[in-house]
Amino acid sequence: xxxxxxxxxxxxxxxxxxxxxxxxxxxxxxxxxxxxxxxxxxxxxxxxxxxxxxxxxxxxxxxxxxxxxxxxxxxxxxxxxxxxxxxxxxxxxxxxxxxxxxxxxxxxxxxxxxxxxxxxxxxxxxxxxxxxxxxxxxxxxxxxxxxxxxxxxxxxxxxxxxxxxxxxxxxxxxxxxxxxxxxxxxxxxxxxxxxxxxxxxxxxxxxxxxxxxxxxxxxxxxxxxxxxxxxxxxxxxxxxxxxxx
Amino acid sequence: xxxxxxxxxxxxxxxxxxxxxxxxxxxxxxxxxxxxxxxxxxxxxxxxxxxxxxxxxxxxxxxxxxxxxxxxxxxxxxxxxxxxxxxxxxxxxxxxxxxxxxxxxxxxxxxxxxxxxxxxxxxxxxxxxxxxxxxxxxxxxxxxxxxxxxxxxxxxxxxxxxxxxxxxxxxxxxxxxxxxxxxxxxxxxxxxxxxxxxxxxxxxxxxxxxxxxxxxxxxxxxxxxxxxxxxxxxxxxxxxxxxxxxxxxxxxxxxxxxxxxxxxxxxxxxxxxxxxxxxxxxxxxxxxxxxxxxxxxxxxxxxxxxxxxxxxxxxxxxxxxxxxxxxxxxxxxxxxx
Amino acid sequence: xxxxxxxxxxxxxxxxxxxxxxxxxxxxxxxxxxxxxxxxxxxxxxxxxxxxxxxxxxxxxxxxxxxxxxxxxxxxxxxxxxxxxxxxxxxxxxxxxxxxxxxxxxxxxxxxxxxxxxxxxxxxxxxxxxxxxxxxxxxxxxxxxxxxxxxxxxxxxxxxxxxxxxxxxxxxxxxxxxxxxxxxxxxxxxxxxxxxxxxxxxxxxxxxxxxxxxxxxxxxxxxxxxxxxxxxxxxxxxxxxxxxxxxxxxxxxxxxxxxxxxxxxxxxxxxxxxxxxxxxxxxxx
Lengths: 245, 337, 285
What we know:
The complex is a heterotrimer.
Chain A: E1 3-12, E2 15-25, E3 30-34, H1 41-49, E4 56-61, E5 64-65, H2 71-77, E6 79-81, H3 94-102, H4 109-122, H5 138-150, E7 156-160, H6 168-183, E8 187-191, H7 195-201, E9 204-209, E10 212-217, H8 219-223, H9 226-233, H10 235-244
Parallel strand pairs in A: 3-8, 3-9, 6-7, 7-8
Antiparallel strand pairs in A: 1-2, 1-4, 4-5, 9-10
Helix pairs in contact in A: 3-4, 3-5, 9-10
Chain B: H1 4-20, H2 24-49, H3 58-75, H4 82-101, H5 106-125, E1 136-137, H6 154-175, H7 178-188, H8 190-195, H9 200-226, E2 228-229, H10 231-235, H11 237-250, H12 257-276, H13 283-298, H14 302-329
Antiparallel strand pairs in B: 1-2
Helix pairs in contact in B: 1-6, 2-6, 2-9, 2-11, 2-12, 3-4, 3-9, 4-9, 6-9, 11-12
Chain C: H1 2-31, H2 38-56, H3 60-86, H4 91-113, E1 129-131, E2 134-136, H5 138-160, H6 162-172, H7 174-179, H8 184-207, H9 216-231, H10 236-257, H11 262-276
Antiparallel strand pairs in C: 1-2
């Protein structure tokens, strides 16, 4: 068991963004988090990565209690995350961006640079190494973010809509990259809206709605779960769908 | 960055400058430029590289200026003994400001720097022990060389040059180290930096302490050159403004930005002071405010960034022109492919 | 009894602090921009009042309105010409921009109006009143009450009117507001205008009992920072409460330790708040 989130709750005043969500992840899995907008999956995600301190519940990683740990501590322990809106270091070059990640495990500049160059090779960014990050388009930035996190040599990577806004061919390339990362031994949690990605990549899926986990299991089972469909489409449309089939 | 020949030329100019003229005015001006470059380069560490805008660095300058004079007043020792005391006080103040504010967004830090600088200025202005609004003076006549009272500006010039060189070398080394990368990362995006394990608050604090140390040194050097310090010249907001604008004009976050800014602004300042009546009418500060707003609005990276952009644009235009010339020189069947 | 007087006087001036600080916190909460020149806005409000009174013989109500209108316009102009452009840029540019504005406004006033201070006549609102044994200066009493009323009015404007909810919507989530057909740019300009207006009226009110000079904005601006930090990022009710408390603390420390150190207490409180509870009284997370 690599990560365990127990009964996580996140309350903003009276508003329950997350209300009693739990998750257990084993080494080597790829977990998907899906749900309509505002369902609480991003909030839950942020509780897992240390951006938010949950109002209740615990998060345990690799034997450590990281419930209230800072993002820096998460990174040190081996949890890496990307951002929904890419947060690359615009003024730094692509190589430098990745080096910042590499420095976590390689304090010396020379070692960090070599490690970063290896990651750039892995992610196909070597040709752009000396360009400034701000010269990239969105797909490039998303790939750079992934590269940057990879350089921190995480055990667990959480990707926040890393494939959103990509063209179908870019999505295929990104799926390939994610598979490669997984094959290198890294456990993954993916927040996504694109069903194709979820179905092709994940072992297990958790569905959020209104702060709670309403379904969990294999992707194909979850996608056909009436509760899940209702959450996305609403009750009347779900009834219509049932009437039509 | 410059080529080696550029660095050598710069070093030569700086070292030989005061010896090239036999004019005490230029010698004085040179030492003032260097002094401004030291404070601005020290500000550059926290404001430029780390992107945490302090508008109250005068508090360190003032502490550094007062301590040597205070030591002289109390114990009649050489002002040199006050240098470490100024540094110690400055480090303490930096810690008091930095620890609570560096975990918060940058605005809190900026506001805190103004508030603390003002607080200390008011206290010092009303505290007879440190001379209240009149301030403190140092030894008028040198008892021995350690009093650091010289008639000519030249010894001061070389003292300032030494300190500036140490500061710039240190800055250069930081730039190329892991610490330097971390600073640029946190300036670019704190949240992302944290998620990569960058100890953001600690980095900000360390660079702030370093900035405080060198600003304090600048203040101490000021005190021994002018032999005097008072609340306005030590802790006033205009002192802080000067540091910011000198660095920002030349290029915040760049090694030589502050020096460039000092070379431009300090001579300009002495000219406008004679033109507009020594800041008495306030026109100099209207001008400064306007310059700061223009820099903020159009070129936050200062003159060095502007220069870089022009140079890059010219280089890419040359590359395009070269390509076109090459294409045009090919036989017709291959052109336009 | 003297203590009662000190307390009441402190609350009255605190209400004025609350007024101009609520404008500052509105803009901060909405756009994450701190207007370092906010104190100068108050100072300009004071000068507008003085000149409206001296040259045009405006009464207190009229010159307060004039100050509000002119500073509303200035606020909008500053937003359009300066803030809009630097908002999306590096922090250095954002902070430098309003900081440069401080110098321009403060020293333009210094250059135009000189270094000596001017005042409105002391009896502009009538003589001091004796209310149950407490001696209150009429201007301070009027200033405090009017300030309180306007601040509450501003809070109601934000929370109960269509315009207010649109402004708050942009503050909450710019993109979502856009999707709902609200124009964030326009709302932000209005917010800056309101911020200026609140500073302008506060300046007019202060001018009735406090001498006017170009540098008065320095300490008023700092007080505004302390109030918004203490009250909490983006919270107008927080600024109201914090303003009253700060006014009280200032008055009490002036009473016990002399007027010279009153600012020192306020700034020291600021540092304390940063150490202990930077969220302030009612700040959002």
